Amino acid sequence: MSITVIGAGLAGCEAAWQIASCGVEVELYEMKPVRFSPAHSSENFAELVCSNSLKAERVESAAGLLKEEMRRLGSLLVPCALQCRVPAGGALAVDRKAFSELVTQKIYSQPLIHVSRKEITDIPKDGIVVIATGPLTSDALASRIFSLCGGSLSFYDAAAPIVTAESLDMERVFSASRYNYGEDGAYLNCPMNKEEYESFYNELVNAERAPLHGFDKADPKVYEGCMPVEVMAGRGQDTLRFGPMKPVGLRDPRTGHRPWAVLQLRREDVRGTMYNLVGFQTNLKFGEQKRVFGMIPGLEHAEFVRYGVMHRNTFLDSPRVLLPDFSLRKEPRIFFAGQVTGVEGYMESAASGIVAGENAVRRMNGEKTAVLPETTMIGALSRYVGNASEVTFQPMGANFGILPPIEPHIKCKKDRYASLAERALNNLAGFCKAENL
I want to staple 61 with a disulfide (CB 3.0 to 4.6 A). Which of 56, 136, 295, 355 is the partner? Predict the structure, then answer.
């Protein structure tokens, strides 16, 4: 017997890998290169679209704890990410191309995973299935899913531009991480004084945006985690200075002072030939991006290898249709994984694939499915997705707020987060021992 996995994104690859690691054959379907979604361009699996950052690495951070839990559960993607990392201060960022190539190679080298490059337009009528087709599921399959699940929610997602390193004016840009944390040169910084920032801000909020062709244009929801920079700027003149352009922890070596605002650039590849504009997801027209972002010191002559884009993401009303083990309430043989379930973030999506893959094997074997303890980050996310009492459901990424509090309360945030992480890993170890994982 085999299990079908539809979609070879981050969640689908983790699900397939987990299933195969249990000794079960996998039929893995991926529609690329037969058909590409509006946001994808590479034929490789686990393609990263809007950023190359997998967020903080410290175990005492929510994102770092999530990755450590994944590693201990036999993740495919976390070791691949570490092998393809690029400097990014305290974050784990990867060379996108190298990462996708490595994941694809690993999947093809696993003899129990059989890959078919074809578009699936309907849900298989029998057998155990893991649907990990992502937030840009092709129309035919999406209609089947949403008929089965009774509807969906949508939000708009945006990607940041990428520029070449050689086109930057290094006389105006300086290399530093905030508070000098992490590797030297992890970030390039474009400092702005008050006058430069205000001129840039005025042009940004008045710049022409690209139309949302092919999407539902009526009152689109914009997810906070990938807010277009022009939308964020529209909330107030200082919003960017307290957000992606905050200057805290940085000093311009030319002046010795903290700038009024700073745009950070993060390496896109290992060689440092390309950089992405951190936090500058956008839906401006391409010509407007070149004009407005070219007002930022150091980017006057920037060569854009990719302009920012905006596209619609779709996710299920998961608390009503999914259980915390990621199976469908009305048809338990069907599991969902990835961003379509409402987990937000690359690693969160991948983690859901681990859970769905493990539970798909258990269901096939007639065993009780398992959900990690609610004190773990993965367990807390699983319960959030499958919590039928959740009234207003929005995508959720890893954060310590969804974990049960430590008692007695620890006032110091740093110590509290460290204690939450320690408890999570201890409970995960106990769970794995009890479940023979």
Answer: 56
Report the CATH fold assignment for 2-151+317-435.
Answer: FAD/NAD(P)-binding domain (3.50.50)
Nearest alpha-carbon partner for 2 in 323, 254, 357, 344 = 357
pTM listed for this prediction? 0.79
Looking at domain 159-311, which of 3.30.420, 2.40.30, 3.30.70, 2.60.120 is its CATH number? 2.40.30
| 125-163 per-position pLDDT tens digit | 999 999 999 877 788 888 898 888 876 666 777 788 999
> Across-strand partners of 266?
187, 276
Q: What contacts 24+ positions apart, CB below 8 Å, involve 229-234?
A: 229/204, 229/279, 229/280, 229/281, 229/282, 230/204, 230/205, 230/282, 230/283, 230/284, 231/283, 233/201, 233/204, 233/205, 234/205
All CATH 3.50.50.60 domain ranges in the chain, comma separated:
2-151+317-435
User: Are the C-beta atoms of residues 356 and 11 closer than 8 Å to each other?
Assistant: yes
What the block records as the tokens of 372 is 């990690």
